[in-house]
Amino acid sequence: MSEDVYKLWLSSKITELGSRKQNDLLRQFGSAEAIFQAPIDSLQMAEGITPRILRTLTFQRDPYYIESMYKSMEAKEIRYISRDSKHFPSLLKEIPDPPIGIFYIGELPSDDIPKVAIIGSRTCTDYGRNIARLFAKPLAQRGIVIVSGMARGLDSIAHKSALEGGGKTIAVLGCGVDICYPPEFHELRKDIIRNGCVLSEYPPGVRPLASNFPARNRIISGLCKAVLVTEAGKKSGTLITVNTALEQGRDVLAVPGSILNESSAGTNRLIGEGAYPATDHTDVLFVLGEWMLADILESTPTESSHKNLANNLAPDEKLVYDSLTFEPMGFDALLVKACMQPGSLHFICTTLELKGLIKKLPGLRFIRNI
Asked: Model confidence at 293, in pLDDT bands (50, 70, 90)?
């Protein structure tokens, strides 16, 4: 059997051993094959081997177990690559305690294609949703792969927006790639697989335990050159990924929000601590490197058409459009700001919504769409 096969066996033990212990074992024994073939007394003498770890390493230590894993994965179209493979993401190899292998369904985007993680709170506001879309979609249109965690809230919006932009996206899971979590995202998962992949260091069948997600977060940032935080409260779990990204030497960007809104307290604090403030997707392109600077000066057809529309509005339409921001505004507040009659404002809002320039939210509130 090849070393990759033995690494698959070792990868199947991730929930019991953890990535750090797996890498420690590889350092001590030299290879996954040596661990697989090692006599019990050699394993017992190794540093850090507890009775529990010994049981894990000696359980199902036979070729038939590995063969059955391969057959099960093949039936589910699950692929596995070890970090020795030329197809393994190069940036992911560089992180502390990298996964010894990854499982995925779909197509793993080429290493040559730049990747950006877009993350944010699960309990997001309308502002956060709009911001995630306004960054993910144009970045995807420019060929950037959007990476996130397929969680409820801003992660899922980042994936959806990347797909709307005709781009590719990677969902990094805290469970086996054969499990859809959250369960309501079956259709989103299918779309991601058709236009990228779902990926995990956890083998098929591993449930989405809370303890898996901090380790999952290091892979989200590890795949990417930059991490963008769209919205996060002061105690948001998103900040765990940020800390990991900083430890990995990744660039961190954050979208500023209102100082009166607790949902932006985390992102505002990140900016105060040195994160790049991002107010437009071109800020992300700039951080990715000078090779993209020429591209910043050009707009995609979709962006150009929206900007042309915004620049060629009738006076009353422009007044209403300019009165709105990316923070939701109620109809009554907009009425006062635009100094219009209710009937005229209703008509103009409907016109701007049909043009795709603003969006109507529940509670008769409006927000800029671009």
From this structure: very low
In whole angstroms, give the CA distance from residue 341 to residue 349: 12
**Distance spanning both ends of the chain, measured CA to CA:** 55
**Count of domains forming the chain:** 3
Are 96 and 74 spatial neighbours (Cβ–Cβ below 8 Å)?
A: no
CA distance 214 to 236: 13
CB crowding 221-257: b at 16 or more within 10 Å, else e: bbbbbbbbbbbbbeebbbbebbebbbebebbbbbbbb
Say whether the peptide bond before residue 183 is cis (omega within 30 degrees of 0): no
Q: Which amino acid is at 60?
A: Q
Q: What is the DSSP string of 283-321?
A: HHHHHH-GGGHHHHTS--HHHHHHHHHHHT--HHHHHHH
pTM, full prediction? 0.81
Sheet with 365-368: list strands edge to edge: 329-330, 365-368, 358-361
Q: Which residue has the tokens 């369904």?
A: 105
pLDDT above 70 (res 292): no
Strands 196-200 and 169-172, sheet pairing: parallel
Choosing from 239, 268, 296, the residue where a domain stops is 296
* Whether 140 contacts 165, CB under 8 Å: yes
d(CA 137, CA 367): 17
Question: pLDDT (tens digit, 9 = 90+) per residue, 115-167?
Answer: 999 999 888 888 889 999 999 999 999 999 999 999 999 999 999 999 999 99
Domain that holds residue 6: 1-75
> 329 and 232 in one domain?
no
Pair 162, 279 in one domain: yes
pLDDT at site 308? 62
pLDDT in tens, 55-67: 999 988 888 889 9
Q: What is d(CA 142, CA 310) in angstroms, rounded to the nearest whole number?
A: 22
Looking up tokens 């956060």 gives 128
